[in-house]
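I can't quite decide. Please look over this sequence plus structure tokens:

:::
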Amino acid sequence: MMIIKPPTKLIITSSSSPFLTFNAKLKYCPLTNNNDFDYFSNLKKCTYNSSTALFGKKYSVSKDDEDDGDNKFEFDLEEGGNLFGPLLPFAKVIYEATGGWGVSYADLSPQTPRTFAGASFLLTNVCYAVAGVMLTVHGDVLFGAMTEIAGVVSFIYHYLQLDLGKDRNEVRLALVIDYITAGVALITGTLYIFEMGFPSLPFECVLFGVMSLVSLSLSWVWEFGIPYIFWHSLWHIFSALSGYLIGETHLLQIYEGMA
């Protein structure tokens, strides 16, 4: 048996949770010959077995294509590098409720934040900032601030999506936060509609709302590259417009009631 210097990180993925990064301390490594010394450093994909839960401390790890018992490594694992922090339970709920789809995202390569298509896509988030500022100036500070925050988080999420590429937990974390901020703004707008009554909404507000939902749905159908960028850009534009009109209509009713 030979003791070797442990790697700094071991990333374990499984069907039960894609969110966890662990710092690993190598306990022992049975080596059959000298060529096995670099075995772990070249290990990119592995299976694991454990008699304890996912947060247990001891795992046996082996290559997918070699499970003969000679190339197994046993680790004492300390949880660390968990980007999700207190949002991890929420992220797991989304993951389990959607079969993983809810924390997946489109691969937009070869587009990046520095290509024309990628930069144009990011700029559509300005629509939320404009809508939020106008609502705030006109008197709806709450809904205006929510819209602005949702726009900032959306920009960060899509920037990371373009910059880091697929299968990155940093992007998944931004996506989960985007769900929260956008969800709060959407719920607030929906409450405004219930308060005002649907018939009081102007036609263009309903039209933009329908167009935004259609665009969002189509961006999920074509969840790759330029098609996603096109349809999701329209979602940003139309949802910002409909949100702004909902907020303005709500303000108008308040001012009319005060007159």
Residues 1-81 have pLDDT under 50 and may be disordered.
